[in-house]
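Write out a record, focusing on structure:
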Amino acid sequence: MKKPIGEHISVNENSPKYDDNVVKLSGVKNEPFKTSEEAEGVCSVVIVSYKTGEILMDCIRSVLEQNRLHQLILVDNGNSKHTIQLLNEIADNEPKFEIITGHGNVGFSKGCNLGVRRARGEYILLLNPDSILHSNTLDPAIRAFQTHPSTSALTVRMENSDGTEQRGARRNLMTPWTCCVEQFRLDRFAPNHPHFQRLNLNETRPLTEITPVQCISGAFMLIPKKVYLELGGMDEDYFLHVEDIDFCMRIEKMGGSILYLPTVSVTHKRSTSDIYPGIIEWHKARSFCKYFGKHFTKQYPNWALRVLSLAIYLRLLLRLPTITFSWLIGKFWQR
């Protein structure tokens, strides 16, 4: 009889070693993706985890309960010893669950690529470790690909804990101009003008039918494996954040399409990792600057991109005291 997953799992120091489902890497090389035989109509879920916290077990449990799940690959970028012991016990009881560990914190993009190299399903789901799949999430999402065979990627309705639609789950492609519109809410001056559309669309009219969108979040990104390989995977120059937007931009450039499925929902709890948020914001700022430099050097003069980069870092500098104070207060109350 299999042990339940989550807070009911006990850590047994005498547990056996989990060599079958655990891949230990001493180092990471930038190897090209290799095509392999795929199991049709099923999904390989890839979760990249770094100091995620207790919600990771709830996330894993919600995935293992899904139909159409072929394998769940957990890329361990760095978790506590207690978490690793719990993960090992799950791997011992769940043949679909695999762990990749020993490579250190290589970032989200490289972690995703590591997981996809072991994926054997026809579809890849990149899932954040603080996301909870509701019952029967994968089946209708995969069926949407079968009814829309030209689709390159798909997401579902991402919800906050209170059930409201989450910011960033569906959005327009990020450009220097759309960022300005979003930051300064220029859309209020011309709400119906096509050049004054907001970046984030969660506050627009709720969708009720499957709809094309320009950009989705990497918190839940379902992709045919052949599309992922064709695009060369995630750009590993992004350590954390914006890699999902970059991936959507590359889908746009190759003429692909992205769908939003509002009739299926996932709860994304966010900010559960035990990391100083200033570090996360630093990586986010760096990724923004890289993204603009990678995709917009032909459309914007160099001085404009430099000014934009300066503004991004200045905004970070101004926000750091508030971020740090809030983090310290939270740490104090956790004692």
Notes: The mean pLDDT is 90. The longest strand covers residues 39-50.
